[in-house]
Amino acid sequence: MAAAPPPGGKDAPQKELIRAQNATYEVTKPLATGTFGSIYKAKRESDGKFFAVKCESLNLKNSLLRQMSIVLASLHYPSPFFATIEERGTVPNRFLFVVMPLYGDNLCDLMHNANRDRKFSMASGLHLAEQTLTAIRDLHRNGFIHRDIKPTHFCIGRESEDQHHNVFLLDFGLCKRPRFAKKNDEAEEQIRKNAILYRGVVKYASVAAHQCKNLGYKDDMESWWYMCLEFFLGALPWALLNKESEQDVLHLKKRITAQMVASVWKSSPETISGFFELLSIIRDPKDVAEFVDYDRIADCISKLFEKSKANPQEPPDWDCMNDYKGASYQQVPMIAPPEVALKNDQDFGKNDPGPSAATPEAPKKGKKKSKGKKKKGKKGNSVSVDENEQASKMRDVQL
Fold first, then answer.
1. What is the mean pLDDT of the chain?
2. Tag placement on the chain: N or C end, fewer CB within 10 Å?
3. In angstroms, rounded to a whole number, what is the distance separating the alpha carbons of residues 376 and 197?
4. Which first-to-last residue range defines the signal peptide (predicted)?
């Protein structure tokens, strides 16, 4: 990052610039700051278009921006539901950055602002369930699991670009390729020791994640189901339990039924029962290597419109003046790509002239120790149960 000379004398404010390989971006305002990174709104000097610039300290041992960049570069099947990276680079000795399009509100903020009940209408919730299902399906089709599905990692598009009825998956920093056991005991033992564990928050963790088991595609979908249940309830049954009550959360998740939520979900028994059928489909696969039946889930969502008598053309809660025109679920062949090496992140760090006195404050180095509770699994494996852990530090905030 380098600063341009003041345009109007020594007292004129100095521009804060990020010089990437293909363009220069003027930082206009901070959007969010956390322990593990910062987000700025920036204007591309060549055409005046605005972008979001995510910055992350070079001192981090496990870089979320590098992992996000690697995942997006390694996609075999592109998806219109994924956020994109315009450019990426490094301010030497200070921080990494990625330049991304600006998106609209995340689904958590949308839900809280939907109405005074702080939850979505049936039609809006079902449309969001359908689009987020498609985004996760497309990620799984590329051979990745997300490990941190939650409302703040999905945003709607910008109204100025006529995409504010469409949903985008933004965060890929904790994605991993699943580790599937082979046919012999030695390989299975090695897989168990090096299991892919959950790195999100307790609120949306799958039952297997609580139990420190090796995770697969169905675990993302179980987190998705909890997220969608929150759309309709406004708060999950275990929302008031803190991170020290993980076993109580696990107990509720293992035993949750339609009857348990009927008192707070003011909908027909057929609608609630139909929604719980989704959870049965998600938990049906016996092996982490199996895909969930995404097409069947999408079909059940369509039937929920009929059971609940919701109007599919009804304007979404965040745009009451226009009929719904968001993307719909489309079937695709579910054949995971061959497991090849991930593409590297060599594009970071070769194009920036270096820091200057006028650059935005670099993100601070993350704390070495997490205050979150760690639950020990077999052979010392652990699962994060702290809502303020690394994945949640850098919240996706857009204007």
1. 83
2. C
3. 12
4. none
Q: Six-digit token pair at 180?
A: 């599937």
Distance between alpha carbon 60 and the CA centroid of its chain, in Å?
A: 20
Q: Pick 21 or 228 by higher pLDDT.
A: 228
Query: Which letter, b or e, does each residue of 67-106 get, where b requires 16 or more Cβ atoms within 10 Å of its Cβ?
Result: bbbbbbebbeeebebbbebbbbbbbeebbbbbbbbbbbbb
Give percent of the chain above pLDDT 90.
58
Domains of the chain and CATH, by start: 17-102+343-366 (3.30.200.20), 107-308 (1.10.510.10)
Q: What is the pLDDT of residue 194?
A: 64
DSSP state of 160: G
Residue 158 · residue 191 · CB < 8 Å? no
What six digits make up the tokens of 321?
A: 């003046």
The reported pLDDT for the residue numbered 182 is 62
Q: Hey, which residues does 106 pair with through a beta bridge?
A: 155
Amino acid at site 146? H
Phi-psi region of 94 (alpha: psi -120 to 50; beta: other; left: phi over 0): alpha
Instruction: Note if 347 is an active site residue.
Output: no
Say how far apart CA 203 and CA 206 lie, in whole Å.
Answer: 9
Q: What is the DSSP string of 179-240?
A: ----SSHHHHHHHHHT-----S-GGG--HHHHTTPPP-HHHHHHHHHHHHHHHHHSS-TTTT
- Bin 212: left if φ > 0, else alpha if -120 < ψ < 50, else beta: left
| Residue 228 in this model has a pLDDT that exceeds 70 | yes
- Mean pLDDT (whole number) for 126-146: 97
Residue 34 burial (10 A CB sphere; 0-12, 13-18, 19+):
middle
Contact 350, 19 (CB under 8 A): no
Which is the catalytic residue, given 47, 109, 138, 148? 148
Structure token digits, residue 62: 């496990």
